[in-house]
């Protein structure tokens, strides 16, 4: 009797859907935003600091919405939620192309952020934790790598599009294209949990057997949110997420930085493609290494690479090849926000109440956007250079290493106190 061919677990189809959605929404919309800053600033006649305040408005909206986002995902159909979310994110981005005053960016930043929180921040880690008991780190790495792959393709094309069609048409094209691509992908591939397909999570069958009721009795070990939020480990993680996001936020200023030292917008678009390639490689490497040697050591590696990148940008920015290599390395490190943040949360606190813990710790991500992004813009307006910003970035990388050490010491305290079960 011929052996029955084993089907691909639906978890991998969910991952494919998440990869495309993240690639378009994060690698496309979110990262392409930096390419518009200089032409918009010059055309509507506002300073870089004043324009980038819209990113702070976006971060404030994120902070307000984050506590409700997890509850919404658990209460309503995830597909409908993500469709509404991409309509908000892509639609707001497209409408930027019709604005004549900086107030338009400030107002549209709110729906842009609300949509982005669901599509690019929470959906991926939450769904991967639902669908993958095994290879969780690799799955998250693949999803984040898609941001790099799509971004590496999209960024140079957006730079060329802005140069040929102008920033207004380019905003509209990118925003509408994102909506058209993401909605069918969500409908085809996204489901909230394996139970909706009558399945067990990927990797659960071998570990626990094929009991049809097993899917309802999966043990999620870890720390409760109430205990976690009172721990030193939690605040170390929250501050780490703030710092590493502030570091990665400099990506929004890569194109302006390149143009400030004499490179043109097309070179800036190309180098953003290199940045996204770095994100792709970093996401895969970090996901793989986390499964192999743990989130702590992988984070230390990321911070070391980050220091090399920043030093190259400080001391050798005038060489196009070195500049491109440095930006690629910076993309490698920037991927750690989307990859290592969720993996560190799981490693330190487990998955018992992962959504509630990460959703709160992620406030550090939002607060970084409120403070770091406009600060970088205003420093440039005041000094005419991004050099001081880069020195601050290097200092934050070093402090991040210390915070990770503190966070894992805090985990040991939680374990000794019997809070891990």
List keywords for this structure.
single chain; 421 residues; mainly alpha; Growth Hormone, Chain: A; 16 helices; 80% helix
Q: Can you put this structure into words, describing what you see?
A:
- Helix 1 (10-44) runs antiparallel to helix 11 (265-293) and helix 5 packs antiparallel against helix 11.
- The model is unreliable at 207-218 (pLDDT under 50).
- This protein has one domain (10-204, 211-416): Growth Hormone, Chain: A.
- It starts with 9 loop residues before the first helix and ends in a 5-residue tail after the last helix.
- 80% of the residues lie in helices and 0% in strands.
- It has 421 residues and is an all-alpha fold.
Summarize, please.
The chain has about 425 residues and is mainly α.
Record the SSE blueprint.
Blueprint: H1 10-44, H2 48-75, H3 78-96, H4 102-131, H5 136-165, H6 167-189, H7 204-208, H8 225-228, H9 232-248, H10 254-260, H11 265-293, H12 295-315, H13 320-349, H14 354-361, H15 363-383, H16 387-416
Rounded radius of gyration (Å) = 21 Å
Mean pLDDT over the full residue set? 83
Number of helices: 16
Tell me the CATH architecture. Answer: Up-down Bundle
Tell me how many strands there are: 0
H/E element order: HHHHHHHHHHHHHHHH
The geometry reads as globular
Q: Tell me the CATH superfamily.
A: MFS general substrate transporter like domains
Low-confidence stretches at least 5 residues in length (pLDDT < 50)? 207-218
Which percent range describes the beta-strand content?
A: under 5%
Helix content: over 70%
């Amino acid at each position: 009797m011929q052996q029955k061919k084993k089907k691909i677990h639906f978890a991998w189809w969910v991952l494919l859907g998440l990869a495309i959605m993240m690639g378009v929404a994060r690698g496309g919309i979110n990262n392409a935003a930096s390419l518009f800053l200089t032409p918009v600033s010059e055309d509507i006649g506002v300073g870089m600091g004043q324009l980038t305040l819209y990113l702070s408005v976006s971060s404030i909206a994120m902070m307000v919405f984050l506590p409700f986002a997890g509850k919404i995902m658990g209460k309503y159909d995830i597909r409908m939620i993500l469709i509404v979310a991409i309509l908000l994110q892509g639609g707001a981005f497209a409408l930027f192309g019709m604005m004549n005053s900086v107030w338009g960016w400030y107002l549209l930043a709110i729906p842009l952020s609300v949509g982005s929180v669901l599509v690019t921040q929470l959906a991926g880690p939450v769904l991967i934790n639902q669908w993958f008991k095994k290879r969780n780190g690799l799955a998250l790495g693949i999803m984040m790598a898609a941001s790099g792959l799509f971004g590496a393709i999209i960024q140079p094309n957006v730079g060329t599009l802005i140069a040929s069609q102008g920033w207004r048409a380019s905003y509209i094209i990118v925003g509408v294209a994102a909506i058209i691509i993401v909605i069918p992908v969500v409908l085809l591939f996204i489901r909230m949990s394996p139970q909706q397909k009558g399945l067990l999570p990927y990797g659960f069958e071998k570990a626990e057997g094929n009991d049809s009721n097993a899917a309802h009795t999966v043990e999620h070990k870890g720390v409760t949110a109430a205990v976690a939020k009172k721990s030193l480990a939690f605040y170390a993680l929250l501050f780490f997420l703030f710092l590493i996001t502030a570091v990665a936020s400099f990506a929004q200023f890569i194109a302006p930085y390149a143009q400030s030292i004499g490179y043109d917008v097309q070179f800036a678009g190309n180098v953003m493609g290199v940045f996204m390639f770095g994100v792709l490689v970093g996401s895969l490497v970090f996901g793989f290494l986390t499964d192999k040697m743990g989130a702590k050591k992988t984070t230390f590696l990321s911070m070391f690479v980050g220091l090399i990148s920043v030093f190259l940008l400080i001391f050798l920015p005038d060489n196009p090849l070195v500049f491109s290599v440095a930006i690629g390395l910076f993309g490698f490190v920037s991927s750690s926000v989307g990859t290592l943040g969720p993996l560190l949360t799981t490693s330190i606190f487990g998955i018992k109440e992962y959504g509630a813990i990460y959703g709160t710790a992620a406030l550090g991500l939002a607060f970084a956007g409120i403070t770091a992004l406009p600060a970088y813009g205003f420093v440039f307006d005041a000094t005419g250079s991004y050099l001081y910003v880069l020195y601050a970035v290097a200092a934050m990388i070093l402090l991040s290493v210390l915070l990770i050490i503190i966070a894992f010491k805090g985990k040991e305290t939680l374990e000794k106190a019997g809070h891990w079960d």
